[in-house]
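Researcher: Structure prediction, please.
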Amino acid sequence: MKKYNINENRIQYSTFMDVGCFAFGNGFDFVIKDKCTQNNFSYSETPYSYNTNEECELTGGERNFIVDDYEVYSVQF
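Model: Predicted structure follows.
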């Protein structure tokens, strides 16, 4: 697993949540759509907010993808 840093001027856009999707980054660098294990509507369009070297680097060069498995964490302060 590799860590991708967000550009300093994009921190306010690090995450976004709406009905049917969860997104990371301004320009939606990485988007997980509803029913992500059943369809390929989830996508990546980098680099906007995160420091990546190539377009769609987060998903191995493919724009759309199907999620095999995921984990959810809750951070409390």
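Model: The radius of gyration is 12 Å.
Researcher: Thanks, that helps.
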